[in-house]
Amino acid sequence: MNVEVKTYRKGEIPGIIAIDGQNCRGCDACKRYCPTGAITGMFGATHRIDRDRCISCGQCLINCPFGAPYETVDTVEEVQAKLGDKRYTVAAIIAPAVRVAVGEPFGLPAGSLVTGKMYGAMRKAGFVIVDNNFAADLTIMEEGTEFIQRARHALFGEKAEHGGEIGPLPQFTSCCPAWVRFVETNYPSLIPHLSSAKSPQQMAGAVAKTYGAERIFKVDPEFIYTVGVMPCTAKKFEASRPEFQSACNFVKERGGASPGTPYPDVDTVLTTRDLARLLKRMKIDLAAENNAEGGTLFAEYTGAGTIFGNTGGVMEAALRTAYVVLTGNNLAKLEFEEVRGLRGVKSASIQLRDAKYGKDVTLKVAVVHDIRANIRPIVEDVLAGRSPYHFIEVMNCPGGCINGGGQPICDTGSSWIGRILPSFAWS
Amino acid sequence: MTDSSFILKHPMQVRVFHFILAVSFLTLAVTGIILFQKPLQEAAMNTVIQIHVVAGVVMTLDALAFLFLAFDRVVMFTKRVFTFSGNDLKWFTVLGGYPQKILLHKKVEVPPMGKYNAGQKLFGIFVLVGGTLLILSGWALWTLPHIIPHGDTSMIGTIHLYVSWILILFLLVHLFLGIYMVDDFKAMFLHGRIPYEDAAEKSPLWVKNDICKIG
Ligand code: SF4
Ligand code: SF4
Ligand code: SF4
């Protein structure tokens, strides 16, 4: 763990996942899940993670048969301490994929949707609810309108309203921090293709400490402690990125109380597993909880925010927004079935009429998940200028966040999606 | 002693199968212990697992070849090791008379046995069942750990580990007694034959019921 790292900035957590040499059997299984080739070690020998190549997705952790990979950052105690500190309003930013997984550690059948029980348990623990679905709706508005701007710029030469630069097509989604780091460390020339919209987690943190502090919670933002509750280990890394201090900067710009040390938009992150551990430590049985409401405006959301947790969800939500903005009409049928399902790369063409320019346009979109298996050809096409797509959703984990590295570890596994051939490990 | 006073106990295909099994299993046991303890550097550990894999493939081919080329022998062996009588229980109460013979130089009465004594039958069952489990689990752990649900892979790993330890412990006893019973040892590794008197003493029921004079 003392090896010097080169691809992290000051303040960033340099790698969320490490391998416990005692438990590692050198079986090589993890290498077949790692999207970046970050796992080193010869077959039969203890394996290690090259933190510079690692994108902290946690796929090795949930797929190692021998439980060798572990998280280097345990945030449960810290959150429990903050919940006990009455000066703080502790806001839980709960991702869509958490509510269908957190019931499992409490004995509920896998896949049970427990939004109400989860709200009840978390409010009992002392959290206020900032549902990430609410922020996902914000992300969609941002990402969808950014896409329309890029598309109109590329097709009709439209200029930016305030003279700023407009990014190229295809636009890639940016809500998966593992994917963003994958681009940064493997294909930096593609960074302008990433949507400039922050992920829902980061939007939620900033909104909670600005609008939320002033209008909802009515407390000093320095005393709002935001906790991402995520299906994802990479979100721990994302929260530590130094650029995510928008709320602090906003407060400073408005002449608000300047904190001693700048505070992040998201103070810390619990994975779904961590949340279950925290509730158990606090002797709260989620399964036995009654259904409760979220209790604030931040627990209101649309169906578009909910489907973010699945592969294709972001694209489907963005297309709904783009359709309304471009055509001026509501969609007759909300579902875009073509981008659903577990195929590695899904694509669709949507024909619509841009009401502003009075022209028909055909939008070509693609949805990619399990980047280990599926992303390279897509990226190579974009680099070579031959990509047919205008908008590409990318989620690192097979199946999307629902199968994220922070979800309860399921013994029957789910990451075998698409893997049917044996591998004769050798060196 | 003339040639006719010998009994062919281990025919050629059995001896070849046993020889390859012995060499591959010993190699697997030694490399397996190293893999478990992980005392070596990375490249050496890789070499060890490569040897382990090669020995495992050899053992598998050996077992398959014996199964298909000497199916009658496999059936006979299976039938023999799974056939029990009250004598087997009695054999265990005196442990075949070996501890008394080896440690106290005393001869005790041992119930009459067939081709295999009760201890060998137990070992045979473990070799048959355990060996099959080891082969199947070994292949799964080598080629499919990324496909099989990892809870199952972990269970397969545990089975592989415990069955290996049990067979290694059995093997130590088997090796010791094999060398102690030098005639049987020579028969298995050289010519296949054991002296008639020896067989009549150790496997009287076999000699009485199954052996006939040729020529
Ligand atoms: S899958 Fe687990 S046990 Fe196997 S090499 Fe990777 S970390 Fe080690
Ligand atoms: S966390 Fe993800 S990127 Fe890092 S080593 Fe594990 S599988 Fe590879
Ligand atoms: S797909 Fe979701 S869970 Fe997986 S790394 Fe990306 S954001 Fe995290």
Detail the topology: elements first, then pairings:
The complex is a heterodimer of chains A (427) and B (215).
Chain A (H helix, E strand, L loop, with lengths): L16 E3 L19 E2 L7 E2 L9 H5 L5 E3 L4 H8 L5 E6 L20 H11 L1 E5 H25 L14 E2 L4 H10 L13 H17 L7 E7 L3 H6 L6 H8 L14 E4 H10 L21 H4 L6 H15 L17 E10 L4 E11 L1 H13 L7 E5 L32
Parallel strand pairs in A: 5-6, 5-8, 7-12, 8-9, 11-12
Antiparallel strand pairs in A: 1-4, 2-3, 10-11
Helix pairs in contact in A: 2-9, 4-6, 4-11, 6-8
Chain B lengths: L5 E3 L3 H26 L4 H28 L1 H11 L4 H8 L4 H7 L13 H26 L6 H31 L1 H10 L1 E3 H7 L1 H7 L5
Antiparallel strand pairs in B: 1-2
The complex binds iron/sulfur cluster (3 copies).
Describe the structure.
The complex is a heterodimer of chains A (427) and B (215). In chain A, helix 6 packs parallel to helix 8. Chain A is built from 12 helices and 12 strands. By secondary structure, chain A is of the alpha/beta class. Helix content of chain A is 31%, strand content 14%. Chain B contains 10 helices and 2 strands. Chain B has one domain (7-208): Transmembrane di-heme cytochromes, Chain C (Fumarate Reductase Cytochrome B subunit, Up-down Bundle), CATH 1.20.950. Chains A and B meet through loops of A and helix 2, helix 6 and helix 7 of B. Residues 57, 176-178, 231-232, 234, 395-397, 400-401, 404 of chain A line the site of one iron/sulfur cluster (SF4).
